[in-house]
Structures are given as structure tokens and as C-alpha cells.
Amino acid sequence: MIISLQKNISAADSGNLLLALSRLLPGCRRRGAPAGLAVAINNPEKAADAVPLLENLPGVAGVALSDAELCPLACAKAKKPFSRPLDFGRGPVFIAGPCAVEDEVSYLASASALKAAGAHALRAALFKPRSSPYAFQGIGWAGLKIIAKAKKITGLPLVTEATDTRQVERLSAVCDLLQIGARNMRNYELLKEAGRSGRAVLLKRGMHATLREWLLSAEYLLKHGAKKLILCERGDTVFSTDSPGLDFGLMRDAKRLTGLPVLADPSHASRNREIAVKLALGALRAGADGLLIEASVSPAAARMDGRQTVTVDTFRSIAGK
Ligand code: PEP
Ligand code: MN
């Protein structure tokens, strides 16, 4: 923790600050830092409580915590490499499938074809968070038996988005990874419930979320029990075609700070399958641990996101099969 002091802080205010520190963070070690004090933090809850109180003190210009102090679990880099439900450490991991499960015939056809083309896991979305209340919202629980069948036929793990705390338990019974979508990165009750599920979680970066906000959401999941966590960058664009892109620098920073697997989603970052291919290859060159990508046997027939969905052949060439 860095406490910046006002230049003209009085001796009385300095004394008060030291007293407050020993009361709020007993036993903390501190040393002088440029224009203030550096305080070693060993309890994130006490630190979180102390910050607003210290900021209120006369003579204090500001109080800042580092990423590692704010997110000690997410930034604890000594993480075991994954080997289940996905194998990180043996080259890029590919999670592929249509944007949404629409019907049994097309989903099973895509699932088998994508497995043969190099997919390690299937996108298996039953609930879709849509900007328009009139847009297709996903087939919901009716799809559970379809994705279970796909898992049985292909043997591939399923990745599904939970959009509501009430879905977590039932989805966890069938699916191997719970996806927290961009819109829900800041849904803290959902993060807690997903953490408690015991399932591996894939956490997308919210639109326009900073690295710190993303890490804090990762911290929620880990604090509430998630043992396996994957980060996924999906860019900031929603429906505009201007500057589609993924933030490779931010992905690298997330990887450096957390040691967690970091995937890229080139589909939602581009909203266009030609750009999606470029982003996919760029992300892999930039060191992404893999891709979450929309791919199917019939992108042109998709009820949603078909334009950004690549064909199985294109997916195969991206996966290098
Ligand atoms: C998705 O991957 O299905 C999805 C809805 O993406 P995002 O949350 O990134 O918009
Ligand atoms: Mn989609």
C-alpha cells in the first residue's frame, strides 16, 4: 500500500496517521517512500477496510493498493498447470462451437465435425444475454439433453455460459466449464455462485473493463472457491465495426500478473468471420493459450452471430489440423 502525503503535512497529522495505521493494520511493516509511506499488506480485507479511513485523514493525499495487494489469489502465480478439463501446457487449446445451441441435428453435426477438426472443448450455450429483449435468447433448458448427447458422442468437455445465479447448479451438473460472459463480468453474485460450484470457470473481460477490474472479478471467483480459472479477452466492440480488435498487450499483462491461462475470443471481437480468422492467428502468435471461437457446419443458417462464425474447414486450418 502506498500512502501519499501532502507536502505540508503537520507533525500532529503525521502522528495521527501512524496511530491510525497501527490501529487499522496492526503489526504492519512500513517504510518511507517518495512523497509518502509504503506499507506491507498481509490481509486484503483489513487493507480494503483501511483505505477509505486512511484517505479521510488530514495530510493524506491518496492511498493506493497494487494489483497483487488487491487480488492476492488471482496474482498468486504459483498455479498448477491445468490438465483437466482442458490440457493447458501442450500447445493452444481450442474451444469451438456455434454461438448458441439451436437444435439437436445441427449442434451434433457441428460437435462431431469440430472434434475431428481439432477442437478440445465445445461451446455449448443455452442461455444468451442479448441486447434486445426481442432477439433469440437461446433455447434454454430444452438444450441440456442435446449438449449432454454431444458430450457423450464426442467425449469433449462442454463450456456453457451462466447468465443467472439460478442456472449455475443445473448447468454445472452437465457442463465442465462455466462461462461468465462479458456483460456479467461485473455480476458479483453470479461470480460468487460460479466460484462455489466447484466447476472450472472461463471469465471474459467485460466490455471496456480495465485489467484491474478483470482481475478483481477473477479474485471473486477464486475467493469463493473456483479452483480452475481461465481468462478470455473478447475486445471492447459491441455492434460497431469500427476498430474491431483484441488487446494483446492486456492479455500479456493478465498472463504476467496471474499466471492463469489467457484465451482470446476472436469472434465477438470482430463480428466478421474474415477478421475473426486474422484475430485468431494474431492472438496465437501473440502467445494466447488458445481460442474460444464460433465455428459450425452451417454458419449461414445460424439464428445469431452467423456472420462471425467460421466454417469447420476454416477452423481446421486455424487449429492446424
Ligand atoms: C459468447 O461467447 O457467447 C458471448 C455472449 O460473448 P460475450 O460475453 O463476449 O459477448
Ligand atoms: Mn456469439
In short:
Helix content is 37%, strand content 17%.
Task: Explain how this protein is built.
This protein is of the alpha/beta class. It has two domains: about 1-65, Alpha-Beta Plaits (2-Layer Sandwich), CATH 3.30.70; about 90-320, Alpha-Beta Barrel (TIM Barrel). Helix content is about 35%, strand content about 15%. An eight-stranded parallel barrel has the order 5-6-7-8-9-10-11-12, surrounded by seven helices. The termini are far apart. Bound molecules: phosphoenolpyruvate and manganese (II) ion. Manganese (II) ion (MN) binds near residues 99, 268, 294 and 305.
The CATH architecture of the largest domain is Alpha-Beta Barrel
- The poorly predicted ranges are none
Rounded mean pLDDT is: 95
Main-sheet strand order equals: 5-6-7-8-9-10-11-12
Classification by helices and strands: alpha/beta
Q: Over the alpha carbons, how many angstroms does the gyration radius reach?
A: 22 Å
Query: Remind me, CATH topology of the largest domain?
Result: TIM Barrel
Classified by CATH, the class of the largest domain is: Alpha Beta
Strand segment tally: 13
Descriptive tags:
elongated; 8-stranded parallel beta barrel; 12 helices; 2 domains; TIM Barrel; binds phosphoenolpyruvate; alpha/beta; binds manganese (II) ion
Give the secondary structure arrangement, pairings included.
Blueprint lengths: L1 E4 L5 H14 L5 E4 L2 E4 L4 H12 L4 E5 L2 H4 L22 E5 L6 H13 L4 E3 L20 H11 L3 E4 L6 H7 L2 E4 L7 H9 L3 E5 L6 H13 L5 E5 L14 H11 L3 E3 L1 H5 L2 H13 L4 E7 L13 E2 H8 L2
Helix pairs in contact: 1-2, 4-5, 7-8
